[in-house]
Amino acid sequence: MSSRNRFASVLIEACVDSVGGAIxxxxxxxxxxxxxxxxTEGGTTPSVGMIAAVLARVSIPVVVMVRPRGGDFxxxxxxxxxxxxxxxxxIDAGAEGVAVGALRRDGxxxxxxxxxxxxxxSPATVTFHRAFDMSRDLPxxxxxxxxxxxxxxxxxGAAPKAIDGVNTIAALVRQSAGRVEVMAGGGIxxxxxxxxxxxxVREVHVGGAVMEPSAMEFRRDTIAFGRPLxxxxxxxxxxxxxxxxxxxxxxxxxxxx
Length: 257
What we know:
Elements (H helix, E strand, L loop, with lengths): L2 H6 L2 E6 L2 H10 L3 E4 L12 H8 L6 E4 L11 H17 L3 E4 L10 H11 L3 E4 L9 H11 L3 E4 L10 H11 L4 E5 L7 H6 L4 E4 L34 H16 L1
Parallel strand pairs: 1-2, 1-8, 2-3, 3-4, 4-5, 5-6, 6-7, 7-8
Helix pairs in contact: 3-4, 4-5
């Protein structure tokens, strides 16, 4: 097979968080969509309405991110229950598959949680997202994914960008031997396609965003709804129970006056 044909066979999966983004990605040549919410947090589960609206407007397959929150990939029973329900909703809406990931405290793949999620998605495809790059041992993690029946794994080779981890990605492709599709992702640029294809990669995951000003003419700049993001994946925002309690107690005191 010629280099030209090999490179042309690389499938582009575009990571988007909006209907407009999905439409633009398909027009630009993407052959699959990963639909997320909250890309500033690395992606979380989009709403059922968003899933349905995207599926109504694109003809290429859509994989839905199922991640209940930002931060790490260590989930409790309540979060896993939410993930199972979100998987069912995404598949019922018509998604081709889902992207999931779960780790244990020690950095190994949470095999029990993953088995549950794969069963919930069956027979749809399952991508193990870049929680893989946060695992303590990539070859060990890949074997866990193969054993669970995962369709593909998204990885940068545990490097800041996929091109920096190309040698590790190549080793993972060889180790997988077709059992799990190894999809490269992380800062993908056009110049990266050829070296990644030579490493055996057949699918790449492409994100990226540009800032676009709002079309609003009237603006009240004294109020902001956005909040600072946590500094990394090992710090996450949780509900401030102390604040809620204080407000509730103040309301109770007011009612008793």
